């Protein structure tokens, strides 16, 4: 159990903390980008404002979109939104949850950039130096025309080309604007933190029950997509191997041996043999059926409802009936003794092990499920080879016989009784 | 790599130590934030105080909210507080215990920030340099023609020209900083003595109930974690079976399939026992069952009684030997 716990922790941590790690790395990258970026205010009246404001706004937008690009769940969200209904209904709250969680993670790096820019203050100074209140800082402004005044003010952000200290004290103005910028930065951080607090800490008051559901199903969609990709990859591998094998055998002219028949006897001791490549194909063996599989996965998603193994449907969609021994048609072709697995029996009857046959016993209420879930987890056939009594109530079981053969055992009331 | 895994496992095993670790990390972040923040006093009479007190108190509020957000116990606390009664009674002492734990841990990083600003002194100098009585200090620059207030407001700014060759600025800032550091140390002393008193006196009051509430709050945390893990595992198996079922439903003719290949069911291909996988699904195999399960986990929490599961009678095979004695099988 511990291994499963670690595995599940790794799984869950892989998915969410992977995305958390990515957003953390992007936040650090944005801070580093800012420090290594050489801010270069043009110090000209026409361009100051646009340069300053675009340095504040455009990189966050870029980081936000980068967050969407790097997030795997975006394509999953798009697919889930656009797919036809199929056999599975669509849940809009799951889509909303995924959208919100993707946006939350993508908003971290832009917020870091904006707050670092505001704390540093250079872009604010560049954008707003021309709006400075001259009565406060101006020493001697009367001698200058408006245009010259504006040009002087525009040079405030650039230390090296500022040439009129007699008009306005550059350091005081710089300091003042920077102080306003830092105040804006702190207010921005405060607003963001308050919103995040309200969303995460107060949300459980309102939607906790449905929140568990949407979280589960969004996680399920992600895992299902991964599983489907894995299964397709494995299928492709097996397909390729079988195809090549067939080709070689076709070229060499040999008839492929039905070696699986002899292998049936080897499995009496209950060991699990590794499955052959053909089994891994799940019966999908042709190009067009594989194409149908891939198309249908999107066009007509299967319902979220697993069938029990004993009720697996046949290829015609006919539900497999319980193997009712009173139906004599099924007994055609069966030799004496137990059902010989080497025979060519129609698929419907032997779709599962005889354990799932639903042997009817009039005296004990063993249902089909009970038989299938025999604690020994071995086929009923093997148990009957060891001891021919019903495992639950110890009544003797008559051997399965051809309907025309004479009855051999005693103590059997019913020809249907096994 | 193994040692790292061990350390990680140790930290993850105890939810309290995770919270402590996160709390300490947040304090370190606040220290780093303070040292990298460029304090920029405006040196203008109207704005000095506002700026300085803003820098002293707004970041602690932000850090406090952050501390509550990243703490795992917040979610546990909120859920326990607002859940419907279900089959499990609510214990208000547990809620109070969780609340006080969350508050204590979240208050550490803000206090660190406030103490750092006080011990460093820049905020105090910026805010209160105008309240100093200049008569105590010599060397004040009178020749600039500015008011007293404006001169005093410029004290925090080193590079202003009016303070060249004057020891006035340094004297005033030293004086104000001394006040600031005294207040900082005093607050630190009070906090530490409060903490010590609380630790020493705690066993005197209701230690038994304290142990109980601590156990149950830890239990709630672990239960929520395990529920999430079980959901994750269940989703994994559910999806695997769903995908395989989909492939099986696309199966073409199977007349060629040799009969005993039934033994190699898709579930067993991954070399895990089919029984194990069925166990992990716990019989929940449909969308409405999953929805119902998740809803009733919140609406109607199960009772705290695991006698049925712990002492489940096991199925075994019995038969009679030739003497008529009943034999049991060990399965």
TrEMBL record, chain A:
<feature type="transmembrane region" description="Helical">
    <location>
        <begin position="21"/>
        <end position="37"/>
    </location>
</feature>
<dbReference type="InterPro" id="IPR029569">
    <property type="entry name" value="CALHM"/>
</dbReference>
<keyword id="KW-1133">Transmembrane helix</keyword>
<keyword id="KW-0813">Transport</keyword>
<dbReference type="GO" id="GO:0005886">
    <property type="term" value="C:plasma membrane"/>
</dbReference>
<feature type="transmembrane region" description="Helical">
    <location>
        <begin position="183"/>
        <end position="202"/>
    </location>
</feature>
<dbReference type="GO" id="GO:0005261">
    <property type="term" value="F:monoatomic cation channel activity"/>
</dbReference>
<keyword id="KW-0406">Ion transport</keyword>
<protein>
    <submittedName>
        <fullName>Calcium homeostasis modulator protein 1</fullName>
    </submittedName>
</protein>
<keyword id="KW-0472">Membrane</keyword>
<comment type="similarity">
    <text>Belongs to the CALHM family.</text>
</comment>
<dbReference type="GO" id="GO:1904669">
    <property type="term" value="P:ATP export"/>
</dbReference>
<dbReference type="Pfam" id="PF14798">
    <property type="entry name" value="Ca_hom_mod"/>
</dbReference>
<feature type="transmembrane region" description="Helical">
    <location>
        <begin position="49"/>
        <end position="70"/>
    </location>
</feature>
<keyword id="KW-0407">Ion channel</keyword>
<keyword id="KW-0812">Transmembrane</keyword>
UniProtKB/TrEMBL annotation, chain B:
<protein>
    <submittedName>
        <fullName>Calcium homeostasis modulator protein 3</fullName>
    </submittedName>
</protein>
<keyword id="KW-0406">Ion transport</keyword>
<feature type="transmembrane region" description="Helical">
    <location>
        <begin position="51"/>
        <end position="72"/>
    </location>
</feature>
<comment type="similarity">
    <text>Belongs to the CALHM family.</text>
</comment>
<dbReference type="InterPro" id="IPR029569">
    <property type="entry name" value="CALHM"/>
</dbReference>
<keyword id="KW-0407">Ion channel</keyword>
<dbReference type="GO" id="GO:0005261">
    <property type="term" value="F:monoatomic cation channel activity"/>
</dbReference>
<dbReference type="GO" id="GO:0005886">
    <property type="term" value="C:plasma membrane"/>
</dbReference>
<feature type="transmembrane region" description="Helical">
    <location>
        <begin position="182"/>
        <end position="201"/>
    </location>
</feature>
<feature type="transmembrane region" description="Helical">
    <location>
        <begin position="21"/>
        <end position="39"/>
    </location>
</feature>
<keyword id="KW-1133">Transmembrane helix</keyword>
<keyword id="KW-0812">Transmembrane</keyword>
<dbReference type="Pfam" id="PF14798">
    <property type="entry name" value="Ca_hom_mod"/>
</dbReference>
<dbReference type="GO" id="GO:1904669">
    <property type="term" value="P:ATP export"/>
</dbReference>
<keyword id="KW-0813">Transport</keyword>
<keyword id="KW-0472">Membrane</keyword>
